[in-house]
Amino acid sequence: MATELVHHTKVTDEKGNTLEIKIWKISKPTKDKPHGYRYSLVYIVDGKRVVGYDNGERKGDHRHMGNEQEDYEFTSIDKLFNDFYEDVRRFLK
Questions:
Q1: Backbone angles phi, psi at 12, to 5 degrees
Q2: Are the beta carbons of 80 and 66 closer than 8 angstroms?
Q3: Helix/strand number for the chain, H first, E second
Q4: Rounded to an integer, what distance in angstroms lies between the CA atom of residue 57 and that of residue 65?
Q5: Domain boundaries, the chain
Q6: Residue 58 confidence (pLDDT)
């Protein structure tokens, strides 16, 4: 599957926590990526993922909150960013 990286951000704060976002446009939509994107958005604290959104191979769109995983309804890249950042803000509170 041909892909093109269309966005990559990686930021590490003064405490060593990392926020990383990678989004690829795929050449041909698939059953588990009907919207045509592959993505990984993650917030890592003390070396552990505390918030994550991805659509790993054959898993479809889903999000991770701590050790919990649930389905995620992908509607747009903008909403994906907004939902991810809102979950990170919630975690930080």
A1: -120, 130
A2: no
A3: 1, 6
A4: 19
A5: 3-92
A6: 81
